Amino acid sequence: MKKITVVSLLLLLITANFALAELTKQDLKEIEALLDRQEKRIKEYIDGKIETVNSRIDAVNSGIEAVERGQEFLKWMIGILALVVVTGIAFPPIWQEWRERRASSLTQRVMQLEQEVADLKERKIYQ
Questions:
Q1: pTM higher than 0.70 for the full model?
Q2: 118 vs 10, 111, 113, 126, 127, CA distance in Å?
Q3: pLDDT for residue 81
Q4: Domain ranges of the chain
Q5: Region 95-121: what's the mean pLDDT?
Q6: C-alpha 117: how far from chain center
Q7: Burial letters for 67-90: b for 16+ Cβ neighbours within 10 Å, e otherwise?
C-alpha cells in the first residue's frame, strides 16, 4: 500500500511539473501553425459541404422549373380541351338551327316558285 502511495505522489509531482511549465515562443508558433492547418482543413471541409448543398439546391431548382413548365403545358392543354368541349356542345345546336333556317328558306322559295309556275300555267290556259 505504501508503494502505491509513493508511486501516486511521484506521478502527481511529475504531471504537476509539466502543468506549471511555461510555453516558449517556439511552442506558441508550433501551436499557431497547428491551429492554422486545422483551420484550413475545416474551411476546406465546410467549402466542400457548401458546394454539395449548392449543387443539390441547383438540382432541386431545376426540378421545380421542369415541374412549372409541365404545369404551364397542362394549363394550355386543359384550356384547349375546354375549348373543344364547349365547341362540341355548342356547335351541333347552332348547326342544326342553321340547317333548319336554310331548309325553311328553301321550302319557302320552292313554294314561291310553285306558286309562280301555277300562275304561269293559269295565264297560259286562259290566253
A1: no
A2: 148, 10, 8, 12, 14
A3: 93
A4: 24-126
A5: 85
A6: 75
A7: eeeeeeeeeeeeeeeeeeeeeeee
